[in-house]
Amino acid sequence: MDVTLLGTGAPQGLPRPGCPCAACATAVGDEARAATALLVDGALMIDLTPGPAFAAARAGQSLTGVRQVLLSHPHDGPVMEVPAGLPQPGRVADGRELALLDGHRVRAVAVDIPGTGYEISGAAGERLLYLPPGAAPAGPANGNGRTAGGGTGPYDLVLLDVQARPDALAKLRASGAVDAATDVVAVHLDHDVPPGPELHRRLAAAGARAVPDGSTLVVGEFHAVPDLPRRTLVLGGARSGKSVEAERRLAAFPDVVYVATGGTRDGDQDWAQRVSLHRERRPGSWRTVETCDLVPLLEAGKPGTEAGGPGTDAGERGADAGGPDTGAEGPGAGRPDGTSPLLIDCLALWLTHVMDEVGAWDDATWEAGGRRALRERTDALVAAVRQTRRTVVAVSNEVGSGVVPATAAGRRFRDELGRLNAAFGAECEQLLLVVAGQALALRG
User: What is the pLDDT of residues 409-436, one digit of tens each?
Assistant: First the structure.
């Protein structure tokens, strides 16, 4: 089954008409995109794009063989005209199945916004899923391998709005509709993300890719899936966007455990506001564990470690069991302990907590054994990162580029955090530095 993408952009296209933003200004060449439309084996067309006959001709295709045109969403972009000779567009009711004479079967998939997704099956059994802009499959992900369209097993190809709805991809992964071999292609691309390298970097972090308008994809054909690092350290200064970058890297994956090392601070309204903003930004399906005991979390899932034993944090077990941070019907239900991705935010607060515990702020205590105790704790953390089987994204502050702290305690913290960042980063496949919201790859 061949799928030609006559367009890959948002309904208004990219660049948007009359928009002066930087993303639209740089959307040229292969990064310029018409409204998303699909041509399946030259016989089935999903959605319309401006000048579809010309778009098909540019892709080396023809619309003369099109027997069915289906729409997936109410159109709010430029006026679309149906070329002469094409059948009038229609829609399939949710849950209904349409059998075409050429052997394709189309099942309408309910989504959580006005519109319809389509599962298309070819004569050889290959399957693709197409979702309209801004849509995710309706209903909870049940995690039993049943896909959005009612079949079982993963799709060969999924086309969806990865940038606007990474949670849709997370839901498909949780239900088994997307696995490591599924080709995930981003469509409905808009001006919210700068086109070019930054767009492709963000998509690769989600396990997805983008292709230019006019590309033809062979459903079921092998494509190299972006290599997702198991361990990533995201560094940055205050308000640099490092936490947003870390969260973005796991937004398209299910059952993430957010490890908050800062805890609560009674009477500190500024800190409470920061915590609230972080919570509001996280996907609702994520679970939160407030702890500085990171080693058991990292060791969970290691061979010889049983769920609920020494390698599993009690807070995480409570969350998996449907505690206050998640419902038993969420994507984490039934998932084995110790396999969920971890987002640790942040190592600087973890270090502050450990330095408090070992008495690092008192010079006499520091020299009498505090330094050695801190080194043992940081060595244990680094060793756990080296051995972990989990996907880990950790956040830390980069504090070594500013002014020299005025106090001995401040200089001690700066030095120890620099050492921790270097040791932790040495065990990570990917190391990022975030400056002014822009992620710079230091490794990976």
Answer: 999 999 999 999 999 999 999 999 999 9
Each residue's pLDDT tens digit, 347-365: 999 999 999 999 999 999 9
What secondary structure, in 3-state letters, does the chain show? CEEEEEECECCCCECCCCCCCHHHHCCCHHHCECECEEEECCCEEECCCCCHHHHHHHCCCCCCCCCEEECCCCCCCCCCCCCCCCCCCECCCCCCEEECCCCCEEEEEEECCCCEEEEEECCCCCEEEECCCCCCECCCCCCCCECCCCCECCCCEEEECCCCCHHHHHHHHHHCCCCCCCEEEECCECCCCCCCHHHHHHHHHCCCECCCCCCEEECCCCCCCCCCCCEEEEEECCCCCHHHHHHHHHCCCCCCEEEECCCCCCCCHHHHHHHHHHHHHCCCCCEEEECCCHHHHHHCCCCCCCCCCCCCCHHHHHHHCCCCCCCCCCCCCCCCCCCCCEEEECHHHHHHHHHHHHCCCCHHHHHHHHHHHHHHHHHHHHHHHHHCCCCEEEEEECCCCCCCCCCHHHHHHHHHHHHHHHHHHHCCCEEEEEECCEEEEEEC
Does residue 278 carry a catalytic annotation?
yes
* pLDDT tens figures, 203-231: 999 999 999 999 999 999 887 776 788 99
Given a cut of 60, is residue 148 above it in pLDDT?
A: no
From 200, 223, 278, 353, the catalytic residue: 278
